[in-house]
Amino acid sequence: MGKTRIQNRIRRLRFEHDEMTQQDLAERVDVTRQTINAIELGKYSPSLEVAFKISRVFGMPLEAVFRWPEPGEDADDEQRSG
Fold this sequence. Notes:
Elements: E1 7-8, H1 10-16, H2 22-29, H3 33-40, H4 48-58, H5 62-65, E2 66-67, H6 75-81
Antiparallel strand pairs: 1-2
């Protein structure tokens, strides 16, 4: 399974929300902890439904949690810092 170009800030947002665990987030959006881990690492792109659920958990618009890099941007740079 290769990396996706979709970037996310889930790890940082979990930390900012009382250090929410991957398991806590998984239960709130009805997926497995392994799915949350794969999404965070950029190994898996969530369905639109799961992406919206994750955004709602954090009370943020979809674009504040997930982004699609512009052509020429290095997707790995944001993934590591996000």
